[in-house]
Amino acid sequence: MIGLDGVHTAGFPQAVLDGEQRIAADTALSTRTAIDTEASTVRRTADAYQGTSTSAPANALTALASVRKAVLGSALLDRRTGKLLAAGGKTVPLAGVDVARTASGHGAIPPRLVTSGGTRQLLYFAKVTLPAQDDPDQDQAPSRPARQWLLVLCEALPAPTAYGDGRTAEVLDARGTALATTIHGTASPAAADRSLPAAAARAAHGAGSDTDASGGLLGAATGSRRTVAGWAQVASATGPGDTDDLGLVVLTSRAVPATTTASDYSRFALDAAGALAGVGLLLGLALYLSVQRPLLRLYLSAGRLARGVTGGAPTAWAELSRPVPVHSFGELARIGRALDSLRRQLLGESGPQEFPARRGPGYRALAVAGVVMVACWSVPMIFLLNRADTATAVPAPVLADQQTRTEIATNRIRQSLDQSYTDLSDAAASLAGRSRAAQSEVLRKSLADHKQYRSLYLLDRSGDITLRVGDAPLRTLVHVPRGGGITTVNTSGRIPAIAAYAQVRAGKGKAPAAGTVLFGEIDVKVLNSILSRPKLGSVWVTDRDEKVLAASVGYRAFQSLPDSDLTRLARTTQGAPGTAGTATSAVQLTSSGPSVDAAAPLAQSGPTAGLGWHVVTAEPAAALRIPALQAEQRTMLAGILALAVSAACLGWLHVVVIRPLRAVAVLVERLAGGDRRTVLHPVNHDEIGSVTRSLELVRQTLAERDRTARSGHVAGPSRSLRVNTLQR
Questions:
Q1: Quick check: 181 pLDDT over 80?
Q2: What local confidence, expressed as pLDDT, does residue 446 receive?
Q3: Among 230, 338, 380, 558, which has the highest number of CB atoms less than 10 A from its own CB?
């Protein structure tokens, strides 16, 4: 109930600020991926360059830089001396770059952020090594060392992609200066809070420079709207990365309407806690009056009987002459009546007494009544009070954030598939005019360089595999497509097979060979790892028939989406025939509560054109910090805990008190009915065990008297009691 007291609404739900923070983190991840991919591509291009010992630097630079469309300027330097050997495009800002020191390491050289013409740009580095140059005047091995160059490419900082109407996405440097800005739609005046970049830079600096930390910020308010911002560092959290030393921060912001109605659950929490305390006091008082106090009186009475049968005549008369108080309810009443009957038998006033088999309600009924008392408090808490309205509980900004994050996830999948196709196209181009052994070597190197592929193979015009490297293909569809793109190569099986394909030319400058296609089956685990993001919920990639191809959670290949509402939501993104479709979102009611769902289509251009695939997400609304849902959860939790704790405590009472009392009641009634042979063993080391020990002494005394009576003699303790009585 203390936790429920902390739920309140002030301005807008915390889920809105959390959503903006995660959007910033997703955007930073996309920016980091773009920079890492470009850096890796530049290095692979340099490694794949097939220069000779006589290659001119200018020709080499043209071959290395011409394939990169985003290059603003390029330079080729001598790694030992730093001398500029060739340059192209705009002047590369190399001031402050120690070439010899930069290229001295054995690992990859990370990109650097530099200033050129008043703008901030990125420098990408790659080492180029050419074969040693032979000396024509000597017949020995090469006399001159291999030429070692440093390729430097200058490119613009990738602009972040902004999703959601009115959202602004910025890339900041360590000082909070905006390096690239993107606005989706029209930004609200409230979102133009220029204090946010500096605040985001300070927060990122406090979190450290080599983490992917993120956070949320509140900006200025304009009228009924207030700016909500999120920041995230463009750095890797899994180890050293290319973006760790850049100090870049992504800031996203959007003006959202403030909540007009405020909710405070402190009064409800206080009233509910007081009611529960009252129920507990009543139940405790009932247990004290009906169980504890009568049990203590019975404990004292049993002790008196034990002293009466073990002491002398005066003591016996004093202890046995006092009646045993009999409680009016439960097992203690049965034990009290039987114990008083034993007292009279010890005095010789009566013989064995039979007790009725049918008895009234016992203490088990009291325990059940106690649970019912607490249930009267718990059941309304679980099922009735603070129930959130599914239709209005999830604020519109939270629903929009889920759709935005789904679009970002779709863009990541699209970028991954596009990059897989680009890499495969480069490998297909390098196969032109080569021998089978050389092609096999190229495919092995491509498989080693591109971890997203599980298998690479060539198909001839009949669909037969003529060359393969990697794992056994999963394909079951035998077809030789034209052109290039992304496709699926099976429709059933344990693992979905998604593949990129490209045509292979017969030779350099020639048309593609008829029916010769390079396929690269993409490891579905790569796509699954891209989909998993914090607080995005379950994510699925489906084909045009809404069959699952990849997911962030466990799934069966080609299964339908787990809910029919998700299937309908995915179909609404298709739009009119031939269009790209639009993302959509909705709050769906499931068996476990409301769910915030969204779906977005892949683009209808590029390698994924015409696939008709979708990305579908579903996040339980209970996982979001929405006050109405938090109040419902904590109210239900309080009711469940109260019911569980009361059942556990009363169950413990049944085990340690009620059940032993029932066993003792049965034994003492048998003893009072004439059973002198059943030995009473004390099991518990408490008042009930002490009563059992006293009853065992009484049983032994009665058994001895019965044996004496059967032998024709009068029992000692009973005769003494009668003589004393006559004398008195």
A1: yes
A2: 92
A3: 230
Least confident segment among 253-267, 287-301, 303-317, 478-492:
253-267
Spatial distance between the Cα atoms of 87 and 317, rounded to a whole number of angstroms: 122
Q: Does residue 725 register a pLDDT over 50?
A: no
> How is the chain split into domains, by residue range?
2-13+161-257, 269-382+647-727, 393-622
Phi, psi of 122 (to 5 degrees): -110, 140
Mean pLDDT across the stretch 115-128?
88
User: Cα separation of 680 and 667, whole Å?
Assistant: 7
CA distances from 672 to 338, 364, 705 (A): 6, 24, 14
Closest CA to 475 of 461, 462, 467, 465: 465
What residues contact 15, with CB distance under 8 A and at least 6 apart?
395, 398, 624, 625, 626
As a whole number of angstroms, the distance between CA 459 and CA 480 comes to 7
Q: Residue 240 contacts by C-beta under 8 Å, 6 or more apart in sequence? A: none
> Would the pLDDT of 333 be above 80?
yes
Mean pLDDT of the 33-44 span: 90
- C-alpha 707: how far from chain center: 75
Report the alpha-carbon angle 497-502-507, nearest 5: 145
Q: Which of 292, 305, 321 is nearest to 691 (CA)?
A: 305
Quick one: pLDDT band at residue 714, thresholds 50, 70, 90? very low
- Which pLDDT value is given to residue 577? 59
Q: Between the CA of residue 539 and those of 6, 24, 206, 547, 564, what are the distances in Å?
A: 32, 19, 33, 13, 15
> Are 494 and 559 within 8 A, CB to CB?
no
pLDDT at 202 exceeding the cut of 80: yes
pLDDT at 465: 92
pLDDT (average), residues 621-643 = 90
* 2-13+161-257 CATH choice from 3.30.450, 3.40.50, 2.60.40, 2.40.128: 3.30.450
393-622 and 2-13+161-257 share a CATH fold: yes
Strand order in the sheet with 614-620: 548-551, 538-542, 614-620, 593-601, 584-590
CATH architecture classification, 393-622: 2-Layer Sandwich (3.30)
Q: How confident is the model at residue 575 (pLDDT cuts 50, 70, 90)?
A: low
Beta-carbon neighbour count of residue 1 at 10 Å?
21
pLDDT at residue number 10: 59
Count of C-beta atoms within a 10 Å radius of residue 369 = 13
Question: In this structure, are residues 502 and 425 in contact, taking their beta carbons and an 8 Å threshold?
Answer: yes
Ranked by mean pLDDT, the top range of 115-124, 142-151, 704-713 is 115-124
CA distances from 244 to 210, 247, 249, 260 (A): 5, 7, 11, 42
Residue 225 φ then ψ, to 5°? -120, 150
pLDDT at 143 over 60: no
Q: Is the dihedral of CA 630, 631, 636, 640 positive or negative?
A: positive
Closest CA to 602 of 410, 457, 472, 367: 410
Distance from C-alpha of 517 to C-alpha of 574, rounded to nearest angstrom: 30
- Could you identify the residue written with the tokens 């579908």? 616
Helix or strand or coil: residue 607? helix
Q: What is the DSSP letter of 264?
A: B
By the 8 A CB rule, do 305 and 631 touch? no
d(CA 141, CA 134): 7
Phi/psi for 386 (5° steps) reads 55, 35
The 10s digit of each residue's pLDDT in 416-445 is 999 999 999 989 988 888 889 999 999 999
Assign 182 to helix, strand or coil.
strand
